[in-house]
């Protein structure tokens, strides 16, 4: 894993978004198309803005997947990740080759089967991911399923995850957070050729420390990223504050 620590969240977002654009262009140049995974949540706002600002990306050659969606949450709800991606990404760029959004209202098993079949034929070039406050990757809360080969699975959200969603302002109470979601599985995420993991903010500091320093374990789901051949982790000073022995600098890089 390659780690870069930045002074500010804006610097982090600029670097992650620029790197994503470069890798997307490279895939298009190499194969004529690119398949990408986008994350959602507040940590991704500025990264998506940076990605959209790159007007030389041939979006008509890009197929997009995303990581997760609540089950039975209407697409009109402020917390819907379909709504998030439509407003913050899809509507801001020229038409994509395809956007394979998770429909949490379509019937969970049916939707998992549908998307699993599609993504099997779309090897992912670039995945943008984050890390949850509980260390989750997508909605794979601890203890995450590291074994399933199914690309999309139904998961139950733990209280720490629900608390984060409420704390970020998506819901007014934990009781309003749906108990289940459709999530891309851990193994499917790891199949991505390049993974860009962006984690700004003090509230993610313990999750970052556990991800980087605890044994690779499903109790710390994001720790599995350390096994990937090309995972680039973008942190800021606040999110890296608890990492032992780090040197906080603008572009500090350390291979684990």
Walk me through what this model shows.
This protein has seven helices and eleven strands. The chain has a single domain, classed as 3-Layer(aba) Sandwich (Rossmann fold). α1 (9-31) crosses α2 (45-52). It has helices spanning 9-31, 45-52, 81-88, 108-119, 159-167, 186-190, 205-213; strands spanning 2-6, 34-38, 62-66, 68-70, 98-100, 126-129, 152-156, 180-184, 194-199, 231-236, 252-255.
Salient structural properties:
single chain; 256 residues; alpha/beta; Rossmann fold; 8-stranded mixed β-sheet; 3-stranded antiparallel β-sheet; 7 helices; 29% helix; 20% strand; globular; disordered C terminus
Q: How much helicity do the residues have? A: 25-40%
CA radius of gyration is 17 Å
Structural class: alpha/beta
* Terminal Cα span: 6 Å
Number of strands: 11
Biggest sheet: strands side by side, in what order? Answer: 5-3-2-6-9-10-1-11
Q: What is the secondary structure topology, with strand pairs?
A:
Elements: E1 2-6, H1 9-31, E2 34-38, H2 45-52, E3 62-66, E4 68-70, H3 81-88, E5 98-100, H4 108-119, E6 126-129, E7 152-156, H5 159-167, E8 180-184, H6 186-190, E9 194-199, H7 205-213, E10 231-236, E11 252-255
Parallel strand pairs: 1-10, 2-3, 2-6, 3-5, 6-9, 9-10
Antiparallel strand pairs: 1-11, 4-8, 7-8
